[in-house]
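Most newcomers find our protein records easier to grasp once they have seen one. To make this concrete, we reproduce a full record directly below:

===
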Amino acid sequence: MDYVPHDKKTMETMLAKIGVSSMEELYEDIPKSLLLEKLNLPEGLSEADLLKRMTVLSKKNHLYRTAFIGAGSYYHFIPSLVDYVISRSEFFTAYTPYQAEASQGFLQAIYEYQSAITRLTKMDVTNASMYDVASAFAEAATMCTFATRKSRILMLEGMHPEYIETVNTYCWGRNIQTEIVPLTKLEESLNDDCAGFLFQSPNFYGEIEDISYLTKIVREKAKKCKIVYGMPDPTCLGILKAPGDYDIDIFVSEGMGLPPSFGGPNLGIFATTSKLMRKMPGRVIGVTKEINGEGEGFVLTLQAREQHIRREKALSNICSNQSLCMLACLVYMVCLGKTGLKQVGTQNIQKANYVKREMAKIPGYNLKESRATYNEFVIECPNVDKFIGKCKENDILPPLPLSHYFPERSSEVLVCVTEQNSKEDIELFLRVAKEAAL
């Protein structure tokens, strides 16, 4: 419906009803320094003129021919069917499906998403998605404390700095102690006071962790500690072992089928064991049958929000439904299937390792780690600023300078290669790297 502003008479009636004489009196608690006298807005435009104006503004955005940046947000090919399905009005305008009888279509879509994720990850149960992997990590950390009644969280060094920051923020509000530990000190840091152990693989630097070793150490040193495995780019599940093949309690990941855009939106995949299912935040969709008959229907089976259960028993305040992003992820997985996801993962690891080997051959460039990597790796450059500048000159969105997060690592960059980088893109990138070394 159209927005109809209140007229002067209506506003006066409303103010009189609450015992306030004017709008100024209504806002008198707000410091005058924060009040705006007048918004600096241009005059209104007709629809035709507005469209022309927006077109001109949109041309200020620069679209690079190719990108070699990742660090948690990746450029992958997204089939056109994804945008087509999520743009349909019945999905695009849908809200949280509180009324099952009026939301059967979207409830089924969420159920199919949960089913697809559980098959892909080999975990027991998946919720209807979180905001992103960072908040999923944080919710997993608090879930560990609910399950163990302990208040100490360990995070393995190598997690994305922003994931760590998000976990710390959530835990600070609940008086949960957090600690970052290097692999060399993990064994001595573990004890029976640990509620959860969080790690990321591939980690922030693209390195694949030895998950069997990590789980073995945790189980030996802290038997009740819950293990949380996080993944920034789940396309690697096309070639790596599924989380459920390891002895972990919670798996979190960024979603698939969504572009980086300007940093979102995205969704956080969250899966766990059946034993911990009732400690999981969010919601779970299930299938039920009619009492008198054989007809099936979809329902909100588990809801851990304070809006649905007693506040003191609520496990989370996640309230925004990520179902549109979830649907994009589901359609993406359906489009690719098992074979397609394997091809994406294979291209990612092969192309990235080819670029890694070739860059290491250029005088002045040195690899920082020797461990296996997925689609990212860290390399030391002879001149980072020159390299970044040369990339932009050649219409390449450059790798991430690690100084963005770690000022002491000013000579290193995090290079990302995906299936979107063609042979020509890679050859150009390597040529630019050589020129920047001169």
User: Anything to note?
Assistant: Residues 121 and 242 are 5 Å apart (CA to CA). The first strand starts at residue 66 and ends at 67. The chain has a mean pLDDT of 92. DSSP finds 13 helices and 15 strands in the chain.
